[in-house]
Give the backbone structure.
Amino acid sequence: MKRVYGVSLGSSQRDHTARVTLLGEEIELTRKGTDGDLERAEALIREIDGTVDAIGLGGIDVFLYARGERYTVRDGLRLMRAASRTPAVDGSGIKDTLERDAVHYLATETKLLSAETRVLMVSAVDRFGMAEAFVELGCPVVFGDLIFSAGMPYPITTLDELADIARRLLPEMGKMPFTMLYPTGKAQEEHLDTGRFGEYYAQADVIAGDWHYIRKYLPQRIDGKWVLTNTTTGRDVEDLRQRGATHLVTTTPVMDGRSFGTNVIEAMIVALSGSRPDELGHAGYAAWLERLRLVPRIEHLGGWDA
Amino acid sequence: MSEDSKERLFAALDLFREKVNENARLRQMNRDWNRDIAVVVKDLPGVDAAISMREGQMDWRPEAASDPNIVLTAPADVLIGIFRGESTPTEPYLDGSLTLRGSQEDVLRLDFVSLMLWGE
């Protein structure tokens, strides 16, 4: 049996263990949240290093992308380097393929997505493949990177402007404590029912991207809208249902009632392949995703279609 | 020496105001951000500056801010470097020579303003 361990800066309330069988191989997945405590996460990684087949780094990014440029998050890199024997991955190795393909799948295999679908993508630099796929389809997209990370009421509407802003901000912001940029630990459990930025949700048909950003300002009612994300729990699904969402689409498989982060899926691929991430590369990951036949999971939530 | 630092700091604040106010994108980004920012110069006692952000426009006065939303404290050279765009706030913030007191969102937003203005 392969063992994959997810170490997350997220809330420990989302901890769980699951056993899955993929391509005939049994894998035990364990997710451990450290409530935003970077030191605890680093210590845990050192403790399990060499005892599991792969480590997924959750609740934090190591690399962010915009138009071919890669930006490093210093705290994420610190966690990645804490593992010297077991490969540690943040999900960025598969996001580009998995999430780009998910958008194309939804456009060709379902009626959920077309060139007219208005998209609010809460953050694009952590999912640039998904962002590009929406734009390639012709969807009007609002990229909410400044809105959701810094509370700036500035919708970015083109990939060129997104890349320009990323070039100005990310080389420096990547050096800042990650907890300043992204909700970690208890902040992930808070829900700000303030109505703030409600207009951006109201103007969209689909709300896509990081789940914790989506729920940060999620309005009480999102009737007729659907959500494209991952890392949702059963409680989150119920919450979306109560707010009137029509569908929840997750780009990663649901196991034991929850969808895992791309970091865990990437770690599973590393464990299954027995290769190191740099040996796998983009083509290697794509081949494994093809073998695993991962397609988006679409859950109808019962809300009325607008 | 301190008079020279004071003049250089005030000139840097003038330049910062000019750059912020002529930047249409920053004006749009900050249209809802009405804040008072106190600038405390660690090595120049008695020299203060009060920055005000109102509907995307910045102004400053050579006086202590009353009831500021953000307090920015650093030696004159660090502040001059930041306001002139010769250095980013990140490194002095991380090495402790610049301290920022305020809500996390306000502090982050102030960083964003500086980087949007000068970052490349």
Remarks:
- Chain B has one domain: 2-118.
- The first strand of chain B starts at residue 35 and ends at 41.
- Residues 2-22 of chain B form the longest helix (21 residues).
